[in-house]
Fold each of these.
Amino acid sequence: MRGCNGYKLVLFICCLFFGVSTMAQKKIANAPKIAPALLIKDLHTLQKVIVQNHPSTYWHTSKDSMDIYFSAALAAVKDSMSVWAFRTVVASYLANIKCGHTSVLFSPKLTKLYAAYKYPQFPLQLKVWKDSAVVIGNLYTKDSILKRGTIVTAINQLPIKPLVDSIYSIISTDGNSINFKSQVLTNNFSGWYKARFGNTDSLYQISYIDSAGHAKTTSIAAYVPPKPKKDSLSKSNVVSSKTKTPKPAPIKKWTLLVDSTANTAFMNLSSFSGKGFRKFIRRSFRTIQNRGVKNLVIDLRSNGGGEIKNSTLLTQYISDHSFKIADSVVAKNRGIRKIPMSSYLDVMGYALAKVMISKKASDGGFHINRYEKHYYQPVTKNHFDGHVYILQGGFTFSASTLFTSPLIKQKNVTIVGEETGGGYYGNSAILIPNIKLPHSKLLFRLPLYRMVMDKTRPKGGGVIPNVLVEPSSYAIKLGVDNKLEAVKKMIQEKN
């Protein structure tokens, strides 16, 4: 089989069957079931749409291997299944495309339905990387054993590595980069654990390493929020219906802090999307210029992407040379083919957009010429010429790597942290409609363009930092941001 790793294929098949059978045994109460014949039809619809439209179906995984993965998905549907269980089948198949923008979602209606089955849930929040899992939160706050910084080695006698690999099999990422999967799992460990293994266990056996380095085992109950006590509903505690509950302050997606003593500005960007971004960037670099800042730290560790025009603008303020978006941005066809009627109206806008922005080239593909041929010039007013430190990690994805791409070899730029989740060579994105499967009503994201940022780069991994700083249980225990501290140390030593 060309391009098919034997171990990965066996893992996929085992995880797929294990996940489905587990979910069948651990039913979500009152979850509706769908007949297998209808689910099989949805799988065939899924495959047809992917093959006809996805620009990178066989970019990382051969056709022979994808056909085998599809056969395994069909074989997993032996009986009526809940949409929850079927989602695992679809996710497992899509993950093998190795495209982080290709994933499966519940419809809004189903999202509300399954939100009711959130509890009971696995009570620990874990930071996951490589073969490690460390406690970063515990819903039982008074637990003196499984506290922040504790290394977990197994759950219910299943060692962390095969457990995590099983969950990874249903998370999509760009190429072979694991860091994106690690961060996605870290962001919602209990949710992904539930998706793979169910959540009806009333007690979890946790194997861990204690503070003295000894291997130990303890048990922790599944978490269910306590019901409010009757006393809490006394008249003195009842809030009047006329009383307005204050809304929490919105979380800022972009911030700029200037440390004059260190001659350093800290810019935190959690997204390249949102109204007001361009104004924020222009105002920030004006401030940086006026304050005479010599060091700029840009934190992209929580930035999953956004609008290309915004990431490009930021690059223009830093780049010392002209640059283009990519060597190639191409779609398979001008429209969108084999779309089920359930999604026809929802995707027509995307099809029209493709017609407007694409032009057929001699290779038969439909290219966005502006992205391939237009060179962007550095901004002259308030351009930053000092030293730039880019903080990145597994969740640095999509437009975030697009921002970094022209700066990788620039002498005044230092990239610090871990390999990005977004591809170093390229990715599939631009236009991403949600396609609804007619019977299960599941949605899957379908990117329509394949982007090669630099054709001379190796394909399959993310952006590698100049200075590698990995997570550590010690830093987690102390609550220390070791990546940021590493940058501060470099600035101090330089000054």
Amino acid sequence: MKMKSSVIRTPFIKTLFKKRLGSTALLGIFTGLLGFSQASIAHNDAAYSHDYRAVASNPSWMAGVDGTKRVSELSLPGTHDTMSIRAGDAWQNQTMTLAQQLESGVRVFDMRTRHINNSFRMHHGIIAQDTYFNDVLNDINSFLAANSSETVLFRLRSEHTSENNSESYTQTLNKYLAANGAKRWIPTSSNPTLSEIRGKFVILQEFSGYAPDGKPYGLSYGAIDKQDDYAMSTNWALHDKWTAVKNHLNKSKNGNRNTLYMNYLSGANGSFPYFVVSGHSSPGTSAPRLATGLTTPGWKSSYPDFPRVSCFIGICTIAFEGTNTLTANYIANSAYDSGVAGMVMTDFPGKGFIENIIRLNNVADYRELRDARTGKCLDFEGVSPANGKKALLWDCASVAWQKWSYDANTGLLRNKANPAYCLDNMGQPYSGGGLHLWQCNASNVNQQWSFVGNNLRPKANGYISVDAYGRDNGSKVGLWSNHSGSNQKWSWGS
């Protein structure tokens, strides 16, 4: 039987006949392979992408996350061997650049540096990548400068052999940080809150030594509870790999909420990295799934989490499924109940994979708050939130500093540009009083608001409402006695 070339290039297909199954199974194998032409229709699943572009646009998704949450309480999409974007199918783990991954919503990274010539070159094993550590820091710093609500965590380790150095690993690292480390989080605890690390990068330290201030460089990578069963002897080990991933997802969901969890979906050795996360017979985003060679009903109990496809007169082909798709579907199921997934590290993530993990964080909905009289938006002085910046009206422009989230339980109105800042009545809940921004504090009565119809009122005084005093850009927004005017009516926009 002539096989498709895409199947032939998939590693270890011959072992199906030689190792995995005995001669008594040949009839079932043959049936499965006869059904392969049907099973190999394009499989375009949003959890996997091999495209050389940003797969999504989630540059500031953490703005909607409660800043009091600790790292251990977050679900974070991550990439394994983040910078490995060259050297062919056996070594390539990503197609998106670091900048594209950041834009798509990835927040945890696996940075592997070879210490050579007193510099850090990015590596995957013996394979050098075309970037250095300063490129990594520049991309991360630029991203954080534009998205102060976010944080970036990255594992940092020494890869391959050191060569031609007169400095220690930490001495070279100190040089990089002296030049590009202004946004590094300086450790204050082993499990900081999101508010503590917004706008900063956090090193997950997998090397020995201390920073010049005598503190660790970041959080201990060794202290993280990890699943990293990457060694796969053949493609047929994929279901076992998925079982390890699923068990760790459940461990993170049900485990100690002060423990950091990390779950690697990747695999190698006996399989190509793209195959492990996609189940595809070739790397393409829309490539066909590879068939396992087994069919139902004869092997109905085999690989229970893999799909049954191309069914004909009661006989279905059992196809491989990638860990990206299996994970995205598993955490989207109501049985996961918005649990904490921890740091989920993978190769070639797609939009569906990234955004299903993001959704586990109960991300707040940020929208424009528009004045009914003018259609203008509730804004504040400048573009960067800070204590004391006055509230005002301005033409709506779909920008972060004009977007707010409302928590009916606490009454807080958070600003998307930095969710650590809330709308505050300045302690003046009376007619003529102004409004400004202040660091959020749910116990502060000045920051507690209620919506009564289209009126926004302080919880402490239901007889006054937020009032747009003027019509022009820059007009003051404050408080006034309740009346029926449209300048006291506010609606949520996009």
